[in-house]
Each structure stands twice: as C-alpha cells, then as structure tokens.
C-alpha cells in the first residue's frame, strides 16, 4: 500500500524538477541573432536555394538517401514526437525550454534604425576597411585614415549611435524573453553573429587582434 501511495508523490517531484529546469536556449538565440543581423546588414550575400518539392504526388529521393521524401518525412515526424508530453510532463518541461523572440515593437524599432544607419553610413566604412566588428558586439573605428576627412565626424557619431542601439537591443531581447539575466549571453551570441555575417573584405576582432574576412 505504501509503495502505491508513493507513486503520486514521485510524479509530483519529477514534474517540479522539470518545471524549474530553465536553461539558456543557445540554439534559438543563434537563430534569432542571425535573423536580426542579416536584416540589419542586408541580404546581398548568396543564400542556399531550398530543395524543390516533389510535384504531382510523386516521391522524390533525398540526396544521399535511398528512401523517398514521404517516408523520410513520416520518420522525422515520429522522431519529433514528445513522449514526455504524452506522459503528462510536456507542459512542465516546455517551461524549461523557452524560445527567443525578437518580434517586439521595441526590438523591431531598434532593428529598423540600425538597418537604415548601416545602409546610409556604416556600410561604406566597412567596405573601406575603416570600421570593424569588435569581439564584444560593438563597432569600432579601427582606421580613421580610410575615411574621407569630411565624413569622419558623421561616421564617428553614427558608430556611437549604433553602439548605443546594440547595447539596448541586447538588453531588450533578454527582457522581452523574461530573463534579464541573459543579457550578457545574448550579447555574446550576437557578437559572434556579427562576425559570422561579415562580408568578404570586412574586418573583425579575434583574440585581441584584427582580421579581415
């Protein structure tokens, strides 16, 4: 009898443990950072083309696979089944697996400002080699001599304004997702993404030194 009474208690304890298991969703943060950064920098980089869908109800073979797409899709869906949810634990576990959203009015307003500023002022500085992405997620004037004398004051002001927006957006993303304590982790993810998205010929900071893409 005691053994049976202990089962509900164990179930409650398991659910409680899963509920408080909140972790930083690094993969989701990387996806959000990539989306944000690419919209600011622009989409001039070549993007991989999606594989064409099968037409006319015919199954198409996946590259390097021997099974048709329809069968592979069915198996993929089975792999994605949340067996914990079927056992009644899914709702609690979902609280420990948060997504990262960048679709708030405050974040999108910052993104729009940064995109406009990048196209109108900063892009030319990166193309000339005057500006670079710092390791802390900011922009640095690394070689002012590569800027026309008449543009230096304006570019310096644009860099200062952009860095202010960058710090604001890292904070906003953390707050918008209910975890202000994630700000430093969000900043680190975005810092790596700015560098990853840098176009050929642009400069970035790595290990305390400047490197060119």
Descriptive account of the structure:
The protein has 213 residues and is of the alpha+beta class. It has helices at 2-19, 26-41, 69-79, 83-86, 90-94, 105-128, 152-176, 183-197, and strands spanning 131-133, 139-141, 203-206, 209-212. A 4-stranded mixed beta sheet has the order 2-1-3-4. Strand 3 (203-206) and strand 4 (209-212) form a beta hairpin. It starts with a helix and ends with a strand.
Topology readout:
Elements: H1 2-19, H2 26-41, H3 69-79, H4 83-86, H5 90-94, H6 105-128, E1 131-133, E2 139-141, H7 152-176, H8 183-197, E3 203-206, E4 209-212
Protein name: DUF1318 domain-containing protein
Organism: Marilutibacter maris
Pfam families: DUF1318
What keyword list fits this structure?
213 residues; alpha+beta; four-stranded mixed β-sheet; 4 strands; 7% strand; DUF1318 domain-containing protein; YdbL
Residues in helices, as a percent range: 55-70%
> What is Rg?
24 Å
Query: Given the structure, what is the number of helices?
Result: 8
Question: What is the succession of H and E elements?
Answer: HHHHHHEEHHEE
Termini separation = 69 Å
Number of strands: 4
- Strand content range: 5-15%
Question: Sheet with the most strands?
Answer: 4 strands, mixed
Low-confidence stretches: 9-20, 45-96
> Please, what is the oligomeric state?
single chain
Q: How would you classify the helix and strand content by structural class?
A: alpha+beta
Main sheet strand line-up: 2-1-3-4
Envelope shape: globular
Mean pLDDT: 77
Organism: Marilutibacter maris
Protein name: DUF1318 domain-containing protein
InterPro entries: YdbL
